[in-house]
């Protein structure tokens, strides 16, 4: 049976996926706003993989004696750059806008391009057979821990007041990195912000997203059944042996590149609720009610319940009625929910929560 292909842009959003540290060439460039000093540099992530980074320090204010409070910003799935974009088709500027807003509030940020992508393209293996190892989930987590350690070591940053904000898949990386840092005896994040982050395991999230997209496209019942059955079989194969089967239907091909088996196997095993329960610091969960990728009814409450199980550790859940997955004001067309300014209510809630939880005066 011929499978009905899904929108490539929509499928790109489905997959919640896409070390010693050394820093070189970190120096100031022209700031984009009077409130920010923007610096570009190169960090070494897991396996000494170079990562292009942008460090934004507040300017026009007196630095605190022990340095600025700070957040590491981690983008969502797919070939998303440090600003939150997948150029040229998808441009949200989500992380860039958050960084500029926080600089005006006296909070430093660091964000980076993913391994092998965008400014890091030169480090992409030339041998396609090496992709599977290069793009292992563990390497993405290792990159985040490495860049977080750089941020806490920076002389202008207060290590004890440095946290992580992760968007979508980036929230899963934030949770995993926090646990890895704890186990390694490193400085752990002072706070976590989980923005549009799944609370369920990846297989459940992908299945829900496929069901929704097929319904939106009014796919015939027999085609929907066939595609969902094929997806279930593919996920079971990957979970069992870490290999993407060779007969992936055309409609699902963007979800399951041949080299992604190991990456997906690790993600299928990852339980966000277990990681959330293990983190002992304050957590802010941000969710748009109009999010069509991560469910405000299924994922946010799941994280909320897991965090409540921690006993005395503080957490806050904020759901914004009109905001999309990228925290933009939602419209009738889901694919237009990516451009424009980040919702002011989200930025305001983020700032208000960070002030007491990062001890900002």
Question: Which secondary structure elements does this structure contain, and how are they paired or packed?
Answer:
Layout: H1 8-14, E1 23-28, E2 36-44, E3 50-58, E4 68-74, H2 94-104, E5 108-112, H3 131-134, H4 137-153, E6 157-167, H5 169-183, E7 192-195, H6 202-216, H7 221-241, H8 261-269, H9 272-278, E8 283-288, H10 299-308, E9 315-320, H11 344-357
Parallel strand pairs: 4-5, 4-6, 6-7, 7-8, 8-9
Antiparallel strand pairs: 1-2, 2-3, 3-5
Textual characterization of the structure:
The structure is a single chain. The chain has 361 residues and is of the alpha/beta class. It has a single domain, classed as Rossmann fold (3-Layer(aba) Sandwich). Helix content is 36%, strand content 17%. Strands 1-2-3-5-4-6-7-8-9 form a nine-stranded mixed sheet, with helices on both faces. Helix 4 packs across helix 5, helix 6 runs antiparallel to helix 7 and helix 9 runs parallel beside helix 10.
Output the keywords.
disordered N terminus; 9 strands; alpha/beta; nine-stranded mixed sheet; 361 residues; 36% helix
Reading side by side through the largest sheet, how are the strands ordered?
Answer: 1-2-3-5-4-6-7-8-9
Question: How much strand?
Answer: 15-25%
State the low-pLDDT regions, or none.
1-33
- The total of helices stands at 11
Overall, the morphology is globular
Tell me the CATH superfamily: Alpha/Beta hydrolase fold, catalytic domain
For the record, the CATH architecture stands as 3-Layer(aba) Sandwich
Fraction of residues in H or I helices:
25-40%
* Distance from first to last alpha carbon: 63 Å
What would you report as the Rg, rounded to the nearest angstrom? 20 Å
Helix-and-strand structural type = alpha/beta
Order of helices and strands: HEEEEHEHHEHEHHHHEHEH
Number of strands: 9
Q: What's the pLDDT, averaged over the residues? A: 89
Main sheet overview: 9 strands, mixed
